[in-house]
Design brief:
- Strands 1-2-3-4-5-6-7-8 form an eight-stranded parallel beta barrel, surrounded by five helices. Strands 9-10 form a two-stranded antiparallel ribbon.
- It has a single domain, classed as TIM Barrel.
- Helix 1 runs parallel beside helix 7.
- It is globular.
- With 216 residues, the chain is an alpha/beta fold.
């Protein structure tokens, strides 16, 4: 059996040079936060500028937290090929309404039934697992990876407190479809560090290589 390559998403991009650094490092997806309370928030106009820099095969991801339908529609109009990511209390119907592929974020509080979440959001392209913090996302905290049960029927995106130092352990323990990082590759909130982005991507590839070696 061949271990699939772990995909990499860098989230919370606000500057052109950070977008370019993530692309150069080999990121598969870049996330843009459309939540006004976030220090990484971008406007629709800024989203269009930044996502417009992406080359083919690098996916823009629009992150929403309990957004109005008008905001979601505006983002989809600005970046028609974007993947949507819902981080708030959105229902399945609200996630499906724009008619775009979407990720459903799950805040891994004690007692969360991930299999039940997967069933309730069966139309999702994947489940993004984040630590439970006050507010929504971006807390830079890891959760107990042993909370993830085997046999989740949707692709799992591991998030929450990842950085170049711990992502190898995360990939090898969870074997996620993808990993997602924001604060773990930053100099300050919304200001990415090109060296940390590169180290993070290299660490994910190192983890994949170790898994592949163990399987041969």
């Amino acid at each position: 059996m061949i271990h699939p390559r772990t995909r990499i998403k860098i989230c919370g991009l606000t500057r052109e040079q950070d977008v370019d650094a993530a692309v150069a490092a080999g990121a598969d997806a870049l996330g843009f936060v459309l939540y006004e309370r976030s220090p990484r928030h971008v406007t629709i106009a800024r989203l269009a500028e930044l996502a417009g820099r992406l080359p083919p095969f690098v996916t823009p991801v629009c992150l929403f937290v309990n957004a109005s339908p008008d905001l979601v529609d505006a983002a989809v109009a600005a970046v028609p090929h974007a993947l949507l990511q819902f981080h708030g209390d959105e229902t399945r119907e609200q996630c499906e309404q724009p008619g775009r592929p979407y990720l459903r974020a799950v805040r891994m509080a004690p007692g969360v039934d991930l299999l039940d979440c997967a069933s309730g959001f069966a139309s999702a392209a994947g489940l993004l697992l984040d630590a439970f913090v006050e507010g929504y996302g971006g807390g830079g905290k890891a959760f107990d990876w042993s909370q993830i049960p085997p046999g989740v029927p949707l692709p799992v995106v591991l998030s929450g407190g990842l950085n170049p130092a711990n992502v190898i352990d995360g990939v090898m323990h969870v074997r996620p479809w993808a990993v997602d990082v924001s604060s773990g590759v930053e100099q300050g909130k919304g200001i990415k560090d090109a060296v940390l982005i590169r180290r993070f991507c290299e660490a994910v590839r190192e983890a994949d290589a170790r898994i592949a070696d163990a399987m041969t």
